[in-house]
Predict the 3D structure of the following.
Amino acid sequence: MIAMHVNKEDGFHVDLDDFLMGLLQLASELSRLAVNAVTAGDYSRPVRIAKFVGDLDSGFRLLNLKNDALRKRFDALKYDLKKVEEVVYDVTIRGLKPKETPE
């Protein structure tokens, strides 16, 4: 299933492909969270999610993915990013996006 090795002397190791797949699945769950957050009235969360998923997309674009499963999930990441950006756009158009606060 997952190529995970747990040996107290060696430490905790997860196969790189499994780790990258987990990150890609996280993006899918975050895109769903963005929609649900707006439904619940949390209009700032989709903005933060969009930034994170956009950064994740930028990082994956630097990789030369040859693994078929990873490549398919990466293609799905593009649609997840589009979905989150559409949520942010809708929130912005409706004037519900919170004002930016300088940090």
